[in-house]
Amino acid sequence: MDLSFTPEQEAFRADVRRFIADSMPPSIRAKAEDDAHFEHEEVMEWHRVLYRKGWVAPHWPKEHGGPGLDATERFILQDELEVAGAPMLSPFGLSMVGPLLMQFGTPAQQQRFLPKILSGDEAWCQGYSEPNAGSDLASLRCSAVDDGQGHFVVNGQKTWTTYAQYADWIFCLVRTDASVKKQAGISFVLIDMKSPGVEVKPMLTLGHTTAFCDTFFENVRVPKENLVGPLNGGWTLAKALLGHERTLIAAVGSSRRALLRVKRIAAKTMAHGRPLLDDPAWRARIARMEVALLGLQWTNYRALAGAALGHAPGPESSILKIRGAEILQQIYELAMEVMGQSSLTWYDDAGLVDPLERHVGPSFCYYRATTIYGGSNEIQRNVIAKWILGLPER
Amino acid sequence: MDFQLSQDQKLLAETAASFAQKSSPVSRFRKLRDDPVGWDPAVWRQMGELGWLALPLPEAAGGFGGSFVDVCILLEKLATTLVPEPYLSSVVLAGMTLGHAGTAEQHERWLAPMLEGRSTIALAWAERDARYDPTRVATRAERTGDAWRLSGEKCWVLDGHHASQFVVSAVTDDGLALFVVDRSALGTTVTPTRTIDGRRAAFVRLDGATVADDARLGAPGTAGRLLDRVLDGAAVAACAEGLGICQTVLDMTVGYLKTREQFGVKIGTFQVLQHRAVDMFVQVELARSLTTLAAVKVGGDDDDERRKAVSAAKIQLSSGGSYVVRQAIQLHGGIGVTDEHDVGLYFKRLVALNALFGDEEDHVARFAARPGFSTTVC
User: Of A39, A42, A45, A245, which residue is the catalytic one?
Assistant: First the structure.
């Protein structure tokens, strides 16, 4: 048993830190310092910085332009990016449709789409959820009908299509057979967002950012070569995504950064004539939060060590999403409590409060989503109950 | 990073698990609860023969120089059936104190018989007003020629009811010191008591109990730091035992959910109970992660790293472990509250472990007091 990173891994971590310090544009650094929301153009600017370094798709194999990093190096890279507050790259191309195309796409589809995902020349969004198909995704209704002339005609609505307003392409689960068991009649298609009949309506999140959208399809013609995998085989692709890169979903780096912000705010927030951080009761609350995070971090390391040995994900990896989501949320809850009346702050255009606190409120609001997106925590519990604890189904 | 056990460690885990299942099922603990000793001297000798008692002791003290990871593997497995022999008290507490502080002569005289399983020793550090601080000691040791006279009261001496010797902390003119006191020494009164977990402890009164100077362990003034380290070792051992308990009651509870029927269905089909079981599972995995970290760090030289990791593990055991054992009873329903069912025995042992070697609040305060807490995270 050896619970340390190797000297080579520590050196890699130092390289990553140096790269971030040298390469992060000042405007992005300033926003990261304040925890401000990054606009799409800023995210893509950072995408191109990482692309030039070769680190934009750490998990892609070398043949498709990946850097050939191992699981531990990928973790370290992600961890340092999160700790630095770097813009989170859109996962829809790099982490979702890209790997699916490598696994299920034709060579022609791979050549057409992968290079532009990598370079950032084309942005993607995800068309899975519908107004009446959320956690029960398989009951989706958006339909694709073969017109007999080489096209599917798509009609329906997708929701929570995050960043659809900036996307060039959307990957969609659509119903191609309504007469069979619901999972058996779903296909996976790629749709050009510039197609006639596609309409995007962004909506504001609780944090007053425009992340989510509704996307409507009205008689949208999609060439049949944009079907990925077999017709009516889309559910297999949807499930395949769930197994990807479990060791990176805990967002330990983001939580470490957020908790450090809580400590910095507590150190300068005065109560009863002394900093809140010197009050034993507040200190204890922050300490408990840190212990929770430490438990997540070391569970993440256990999963990582298993992945580095090529083992299938063990039981420990199944809790990373649940705990990662809860902890990031709880840290922002704690930040709001530490701030007291300053938690009323909403963007603070007048510059009245400490910049440290300026964006906590919107983040706190937006992070209500962590326990919902990517399979809600309740769905995660259903999965663990069934697949790990072996509890019976109704 | 490598979390895998070595071949030797895997063998130790298998041997301990098989011992627990075959030679010491929970029924054995049940029987021994009513015995005045509470454990079996023949089994203790067997543990000595297996080399378990000498496992973590330094080689210079006649031990095998094993790591705390080894101790944790052993105790986690023994906990699965509540094996009652006094390993924690005699090896991890008193044995480790003697092993690190004693001379070769003292090791030969007191430690060697214990490592062979022919005696047990108890560590008498706690006092009524000390709570968890081993340096807050009222017991005095006065020098009289080449002997020492000890006066004071030691409480919650684990397994002290049957120990051959006590390692006693007492204040001298030159600071805190440790002495080995024979249970039969004049002026020593041992009052046995039952504990909540079906085990035993003693309160020990010293009324001018006299020991020779060769019963003093180490120089006066050095005992505080040693006890701090020893008690951290015991805290980690408690975490390992607690982990074994939590995993066992989780398995027991999941098994019950799969077989118990109400309303014409297995109760494990109810989502509210499924999610409760998952939340128990999550806490067990977190405990496993932090206990492993603490087991590695407790043997290291960095005091700050050690304290941070040990406190984190102990906090997790207390908060998460309590959740697990309480929910285990809840999900068993009424039968879980009977003495007849095993789940309550595990529950009570965990309650005891949480109250020992620093409780949750104590460790939270220590974690928050560590250097760098204000400016770093994890």
Answer: A245
